[in-house]
Amino acid sequence: MVQNFIEEQPPAPKCGRNRCNCFNASSSDEDDLDPFGTPPAPESSAADATESLKSLIPCVSVDERNLLADVARIVEKNGKSYKGKDDLRKVVAEALSSLGYDSSICKSKWEKTSSCPAGEYEFMDAIVEGERLIVDVDFRSEFEIARSTGTYKAVLQSLPFIFVGRSERLGQIVAIVSEAAKQSLKRKGMHVPPWRKRDYMLAKWLSPSSVREKQSPASSVHVAAPAPPPCRKRCPPVTRQRRRAIAVSWS
Question: The pTM is what?
Answer without folding.
Answer: 0.68
